[in-house]
Structure formats: structure tokens, C-alpha cells
Amino acid sequence: VAHHPTFTDNVLSGLPRKGGKGPRPMYGSYALVSDDPNTDTAVVFVHGFLGDAYGTWIDFQRMIDGHAKVPEDWNLADLFFVQYSSFRKSIANIALLILRLVPQIFPTPPTGLFRIDDPVQGVPETVIQSFLTPHSYKKLFLVGHSEGGAVLRNTVVMAIQKNELQEELKNAEMNLFAPAHGGFQPTGWVGACLAVGRIDAIAMTVLNLSPAFVEMNKGKVLETTQDSTNTYAEQKPNFKPLRARVVFGENEHIVARLVFTYDNPVDDLPGEDHSSICKPRPDYPDPLKFAIGLNLGKKNKNKQ
Amino acid sequence: MHILQEFVLERIDPLSVAMKEDTEASRSTKRRRRADFFESFLWLHLGAEIGAFPFDVAATVYTAYFEQFFSALNAPTSDTLQQTRDIFRSQLYVYDTPESRELKASFPNHVILIEKAMRGEDILRAQLSYFSSSGALRPLFNNLLFLSIRLAADRAVRRFVEAVQFFDEKEWDEWWDSGKCDPDEIVLYAEGATVEHKAAIAFAGYLTVWRTTYQFQQLFESCEKDYNLSSDDRFKLSDRVRDMVRWRMSLTNLIASQRFDAIASRLKTNLDAQARKDVEFQPVVNQIKESFDKVFQFWLERSPAIA
Known about the structure:
The structure holds 2 protein chains of 2 kinds. By secondary structure, chain A is of the alpha/beta class.
């Protein structure tokens, strides 16, 4: 089984532009599409503050196909990596983007994900015929890192409030790496380097600045999301994404270890920090298990 | 979509069309497109060897897009007369055009491959790396190719490479304008807006190359601990990829290197100025500056570097 990197700019739409000019393309977003025709799982990854759809999750993309310790579940999963600008967008705005994205993917993604829908003149027939078998999904996983976790929680709350996607989301599993509560917006040359460079290991240094500096903007949004999530979790005990699995690294110094009332916390992962926790390595395959809902073994307090 | 379809649709076909149809493009744009197209060929060649692309399909892609490209790099007969004396010295393998010479200058480690392709040889079977376990390299190759497509598709990077590598002095001076711009323009350009000051494009291109190079490094660094991969294969692949992509940075070219340094040092000066105003930023400014220096070393080394 191999996963094929596929840009999604032309097959998945972002939010509408101002003035009714049609949807904004989601630049930088992409998918890894499995060539196993029995694929039945969609996993949506949402990066964090100043993160990148590729860099935040490195080396998920290679290890799902190239490493012995990888759970077989990944063979039957397509991965969708969302990119957004965390620089000037509110959490609610990004959450709305995800809310509009999910029904485009789940349960039936667009056929353009698997084959060339509109043949381009001059492209050899052999290339056009090299398509992947289209499939639809039965399972949905929502995976967030840092601010991406806050975004996904907000998406679920928003879906309930707007009475949208109830069927699509009710069995979705939410797995969050170090969900964030930061809201600092760097400006000037530092801001430009971080916003365009999108290297989260460096963004961490900014987030390590004084907490008051970092948490000044978005704290209120997150408090509201927490209250709403807890309330809805009581009202809708079978609505799975209201009960997130949450994991932090042992060396987490960026975000408060805030776990919502009905969450399923997992033991801290030894040696990992805010940036490294979601990046699998050959000697650290845990993110590959956590993201797709598998037990991490001894470190896990809860049975899933 | 199969990765070969993605590669053809996102990279090879648009470049091929642009080269054929946009005959009014500037000299620097044409040079950049030719180099970009040749780099695409190198990815096709490598993907066919590794098995990421079915060999027969890769061969049809070569015939459809690249055969004519390489053939057109040969000088017409009238020019060859001036070069006949070289034939008797057995020094001449092909009859060069200005375009083929420029291409060889951008890819000094691929001169033989360019000449073989210009002669119409069975190029997908030439100059192979003979990896011991090609299959194990496929996931890594797919990711490297993906990053390269992402890099090549970025409009800031395209303009940055054209300017740094191929602008003449006058064009460069006008475009760079001593690096005058507002930092917000850099972010806006990277997000798709138009900007007043062209220097913002230079900074956006530089920062995007920084990010992608860092990701290349991270990938190779992760592979170092992956015992499924032979270290020989990993080193061969790493060196080949550097040789294929390095032309965009080409830090060994003096003029390009000076322009690259001008962008980097202006960026560092501006970061320092911001840190002087707000000392809280000093640690992150130091980290960004150190990262610039470390990350771009990747293109100069012959073995995997650690960011």
C-alpha cells in the first residue's frame, strides 16, 4: 500500500471570499490518498499556531508507508492536512473553515482526489489511466495540534449550535496533541518570519514568552468553548467528538494542561515537548497510534 | 490521485505549456522555466529508477514532454560549423546553444545527462544510482517530490529564484530597491495578495525556501534513525536531491550568492532592530538568525545535515 500526495486546492474549497467571488482556495492543504481500494477512514489534521500543513506533522507522511512499527490501520486511511493562516484569523473563523470542509470529505470525497476529472490536452493517456480507485469513508478522525485542537473543539460546538453535520460528526473521534490556548499575534519582522517560515519549533520560542503576553486575545473564546463542550457533552452523551482524547508531552511548557470534563486524557509522553509531541520518528511511533485512536500501551490511563 | 498524475498536472504540464505559449516572457523567466523543467525531468528520471512511477508510463511522459525540449537544445548546423575544430579534438559531445550552455551552468553535476538527452539516448536508463533497495525509498521519494512540487509552485519562490539567479544587474537593482518594504507586505504576498514593494517578494521567497529546506532536512534527519533504509541508499538519494534542487539557491554562483546574502542580511538587520525596540523578542530573533545560517548549509553539504 502506498499513499499518494495530492494537492487539494482544486478539489476542496475554503470559505467564500468577500463580495461573493466564490470560495477561497485552501493554499497549502493537501491529502495523502491510499491506493488500497478498501480504504474506509478519513483523518483530518489541523496544525497549530504558526504551524504548517507539512512541517507540523513531519514525519507522518513518510512513516505511514515506510516504517515497520506503523499500525496497519493507516493502510486503509486517507489523510487530509489542512493549512490555514493562524496569523490574522480568529479561532472561530478557522473553525468555520473546518465545518465547511468536513462535508466535502466525509463520507464521500470528490472524485478529483483519485483521478484527473478534467483531462488536460496533451497529458498522455497512460497518465490519465494511472488513477486510484475512488472510495468513501465510514470512519472519521479529527486530529489537532496546539491551536488546531482549540479549532476542532470550536468546530464541534459550532456544528451543534448551527445544527449542522450532526450525522457526519456524531461518531467522529477527536484526538488532540497538546491543545492550545495561546492567542499572541506577533507583528513586524519577527511576525513575518514566523508567518511565512511556519517553523513551529521556532514559534515555540515566542510562545515561551511570558504567559500574559501570549494568552491575551483568545482566552475568552476558549473559556466559552470549554463551557459549551461540557454542557453539550452532558446533553449528548453519544456524540463522540465532545469527548476528546488529549495528550501532552512531559516537557510541555507552552500551554496550560487544560483537560475538559468529559475528555479522555492519556499519560504524558516522556521526553516530548509542545512541538515534538505530534511528530513521529522511527524511535517514537506514538503519534501514529494516538492519531488513529489506538492505545499507547502502558502510558495510557484510559482504555479506549 | 496517483503521484505521477499529480506531478504531471501540477508541475510538468503547466511548465511545458508556459514555455511553448509565453514566447514574450523575459529572458530571466525563460531561463528559470527551462531550469525548472529540467529539474522536473530529473525527478521523473529518479522516480522511474526508484519505482515510484511505473517505468513505461514515465517513458511516455518523457516522450510527450521532454524529448522535444532536449532536441531543441541542439544547435542548428550553421552554428556547428564553427565548432568543428572541437570534433577533431574529440572534445565535443553535442553542439551547444546558448540555452544548453545556460542549463549546464545551472546544473554542473548533470552535464553528461543533459548531453545524453540532447543526443536522444535512452535517457531514463542512463546515469542511474543503483540503489540497493529502491522499494524502501519510495515513501521518502514521494515526500521529497511533494515538497519540491510545493516549492516550485510557490509564486514568491519562482520570482525570488528568477531575480536572484537570472536578473541582470539593472533588473536586480530596480527590483530589490535596497530591500525597502513593510513586513506586513511579506505576509500579504505569501497569502496571495499583490504588494507595492517588490522587495517583499524577495523576503517571502527567501522565507519560503527557508521553510522548505528545513522540511527537507527534517525528513532526512528522521530517516537517519530508520533502520529500514540502507544508509548508502539514503546518502545517494540525499546527494541526488541536493544536486537537483540546488540550482534554486546556487550559492556557489558569486552574483547569486551576493544577492542571497543581501536579502538575508537585510532581514537580520530588520529583526535586530525590532529586538532592540522590544527586548522580549531577542531570544526568537537569535533563533531565527541561527536557523537561517544552519538551514541553508543543507544545500552546500554532501551528506544529511541537522537543522
